Amino acid sequence: MPSKPLKNPCNLCQSVRAILKRPKTGQQLCKECFFHVFETEIHNTIVDNKLFKRGDRVAIGASGGKDSTVLAYVLKLLNDRYDYGLDLMLLSIDEGITGYRDDSLETVKRNRDQYQIPLLIVSYKELYGWSMDDIVKEIGRKNNCTFCGVFRRQALDRGAIMLNVDHIVTGHNADDIAETVLMNILRGDLPRLQRCTSIITNDTSEDSSGIETSKVLRSKPFKYTYEKEIVMYAYFKKLDYFSTECIYSPNAYRGHARVFLKDLEQVRRTSIVDIIHSGEALSASVVANTTTKLPTLTTCTRCGYISSNALCKACLLLEGLNRGLPQLGVGHSAKIRRQHEERQRDSGTSTPLPTSSSPVVGGEESTVLAATVTLPSSTSSVDTGNAQTKDGLDYEAKVVVTHMKDLETRIGQLQMPSLHST
Amino acid sequence: MDNSLAKKGRNTTPGYCFKCKIAKSTIEIRYTEYCNPCFLIYLDHKFRTGLRNSRGANQTPGDNVLIAFSGGPCSRALVHLFEFYKSLPAEINAKNPGQPKTYNEIHVAHIDESCLNTPLSYLENDKETPSTGSGVGAGAGVPATKTTMEKAQAIAAMYGFPFHGVRIEDIYDIEWTESEKSDGVATLLTCLPKEQLAISGQAPELVAQIYASPEERSTPESQSLSREEKVQRLQQLLGALTTLTAKETVLEHIRQRLLTQMTKKARCDVLITGTSATKMAIQILELTALGRGYALPHETALVSTWVDGCKTIRPLKDILQRELELFNALKGLDTIPNNGVDLEPTLQAKSAAKSIGRLTSSFIVGLDKEFPSTAATVCKTAAKLTMPAEATYQNRCPVCAGPVQQGVQTWKSRITVTTPPSSSLSSSSSSSSSSLPAADAGHGQADTGCGSSGICCGSGSRSGALSTRTGEQGRCGSNSGSHTSPAQPNLEFSSLLCYGCLTNLRDLDLKQLNHLSARDDDNDDDDTAAQTHVSSPPAFVLPPFMTETLLNRQGYDSAEAYKAASAAASSTNVRDPREALREQIQEFLINDSDDGSDDDTE
């Protein structure tokens, strides 16, 4: 083999036969070179953006899907290879979607064992008293993703506080970011256009439901990583992930953007990176326009979390659910409130709906505390995570592809605003 | 719909005009019903609002304007709206001293692009006259009827507006440079072949052979090229681009260049385009997808003053294309049928026949049907963007004349790694000893990556790459035999480009030219003296305006390079990659004193 000319040599090392065409560049690579460029790009992203400090406790938002599974694997690998000195943890949200999340959580649990990373699962049911199945029963299939997205974002923050981490990383990939750039242009959402390309976000930046003063950072190490390459990586590494879409369907508008993006990628494979580049430039352009007012943040009068209104979105949605007015906070709240008041007038009762200024105290604080009870036994082994890194690298678990699309990518999905909301 | 209107407090009766409330409505647009007369008034008001808003705060009345008139529905309506505006009685201005009629002379400009179709089909026609099928099709392309130029001129004459027409191939005339003088000629000699580009995964390497002044060329008559020569050069330029996206983008740059230069030549102060809201929304998304987000604010603003000496305004940018088409229909205005720039014949791969522009267009049009406010929302988004101040027109991209963002090549090389495992593993691991690796070490690694593939910012391997190139160039010079100076300095200019053009020119493949020139030779090899022969290495001539910018930027950069070089002499090699770049190309930079001495020797 050394003397014989190779039939289809890898473009990089020239010494091994290429087995794949890299989606990002079109180069033909061998497996090892692909792993190398894939991991190095993520490493570059982490280093250039100074995502972590030595000794940081980092929670990986894990859904069991391909992005978060690969993220957990790669972070652990890079942490060992480059000695980041990070303390890694897995954090999962159980939305309570039967036939979808329960299966994907099994995958996360396997990942916990495979990578020897401790895992915490927080559930909607315990945090809010409502599982997604309950919510869907209440409000139907339309708009339920608004609830899921808003609640998940807050749930992640609460989970992070329980784990006492400094940082949450999510598996948002380059496709997700490019798509969000397009979405925000299409929807005219300047504040989000401004921040959707930033790789680190403080929770103060997101849509009305962040956790107050927790100082938990969020970042997206896969910002420049193509979705196709993540799949490729998982495939060649034989990683164990769950690959089914959420059973509560995706939304049409974002679907359009996604199809459009795929078309663009087909015409020019650098399109995704190009869009992100544009998005970063546009972000500066939004800031440069001093006449644009970006929303100022306050804290929610009810739960004390960061909010752009007096009442945070999660509290508003929850209030709607508890009052049997699930449309509250979805779409035109003013309209719904007016309709509600008319109905109240007709029936002679008068219970004003919560407005931004009504400081009703909900049952939320207690549910937060309750969630801690659900810490799985594995969290007790938090400290062992790093000690076992060496072994962790060699995992090549069998592919047990169950079903689901990642937590992270879904996060913003129906609730269009939020890329960050994972 | 009735509900939504009622809620907004509008007093309206379904079926009746929303304005006069007397006439039956005949038009429904943006959820509002109009009768014909009211619609025309509404549109005219909208247009004048656009004009008023585009007026600068301290603008003196009496500016001359140039209307970019393609003959399509939007610019056709624009020309008519201006007649309306022009014919307004002066008393209106007297009554409204706060709103003087801003514009004085109104000129109309048209770019005839028929050469993009006809010469190709003309060639085919010649070749295949016996075959019936293609003969008929090509015959239609030959302008038996009036050219778009003639039609446009007729329309302008109808309104009594001065007319300025130009053919798109005239971009090869020297008058379209900023200085309107013959500054130099640049021939794009090499870029990495497409396959090699795919292998390296890097930015394209673009090397131009530059003659700083016409005396250096053996063919002084090149200053006034024949039409065939210009068409041929344009075809070579477009022919070397392998995708429809790239062709369309470069054509758009050429159009923009012609229009802004026409504005100046016509002694106008303002260029007015008929960009509708629909077109604007498409453009916004397209620019984003092309990686041109940095230039987006100035390319889509109501008023753009990016180009020196040519303000661009887009007063129709709040009016939907459908509204303008309606306006044309009601007024009985004829548009000039777009004889569809047909770029596909030169494309080899079928997948290349889709373009980002066309995809975006169908995406927006489709979305606008389902969500009717899409176009307006997108336009409003972009209207709130302001370009960061650091970019200057002086430092513009030679190809698109847009703003250039610093450090894009480094950015790209960091997120798209193209080095084999061994090299970077060693450098990375050495730098990651203590905690997280330092960013500087990472940069060093990226730089060697670039350099080894001969692209931009490497340190060690650079000289090797250069010498190869010089050799190549020498070969080229002797083969073509059209240049007297034996060794012209070459300029690697990919580092001067903006991100969008850098990306776009990845689709450049000079090999394509062999096919093209082979076809040309079959037909008219005696006509053109400066013909590129099949045997000669593929190369094409850059339009003079690009050359001019290259030379300017080069002068600008060489001054910087000297500074950088002297500074670098003492310092370590960790510094701005652009400066390192400049230093490396320094010996290939021409400055004015060199030019002078060259002239003397000749």
Report the sheet with the most strands of chain B, covering strand number, pairing sense and barrel closure: 6 strands, mixed
Total number of β-strand segments of chain A? 10
Report how far apart the termini of chain A are.
Answer: 49 Å
- Spatial order of the strands forming the largest sheet of chain A: 5-4-3-6-8-7
Q: Strand portion of chain A, in percent? A: 5-15%
State the helicity of chain B in percent bands: 40-55%
Judging from the principal axes of the Cα atoms, what is the shape of chain A? Answer: globular
* Largest interface summary: A-B, 69 and 70 residues
Counting DSSP E segments of at least 2 residues, the number of strands of chain B comes to 12
Order of helices and strands of chain A: EEHEHEHEHHHEHHEEHHHEEHHHHH
Question: Which blocks of ≥5 consecutive residues of chain A have pLDDT under 50?
Answer: 203-213, 352-422
- Which oligomeric state applies? heterodimer
User: Which structural class should the secondary elements of chain B be placed in?
Assistant: alpha/beta
Largest sheet of chain A: 6 strands, mixed
Distance between the termini of chain B: 78 Å
Rounded Rg of chain A = 22 Å
Helix content of chain A: 40-55%
Mean pLDDT rating of chain B? 69
Keywords (chain B): Cytoplasm, tRNA processing
GO biological process, one term (chain B): protein urmylation
Organism (chain B): Actinomortierella ambigua
GO molecular function (chain B): nucleotidyltransferase activity; sulfurtransferase activity; tRNA binding
